[in-house]
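Sequence only, no structure available. Ideas?
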Amino acid sequence: MALQPGTTLGPYEIVSLIGAGGMGEAYRARDPRLNREVAIKGLPDVVSATTTAGVDLCGSPTPPPL
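Reply:
I predicted one. Tokens follow.
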């Protein structure tokens, strides 16, 4: 999948590669809607061919402070 810094994936902008291994690649990305960093994991073709989505987007909004 090899994404370069500055690449956009939906609303997310890739910042850097966190790591890579047998189950895919993990990237640090920026979510401008939430103004925060998120992690994006790209799955290899062998794994993504058996799932409905080839990319897991992990991140949830931070609750507002009390």
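The beta strands are 8-9, 12-21, 24-31, 36-42, 55-58.
Hope that gets you unstuck.
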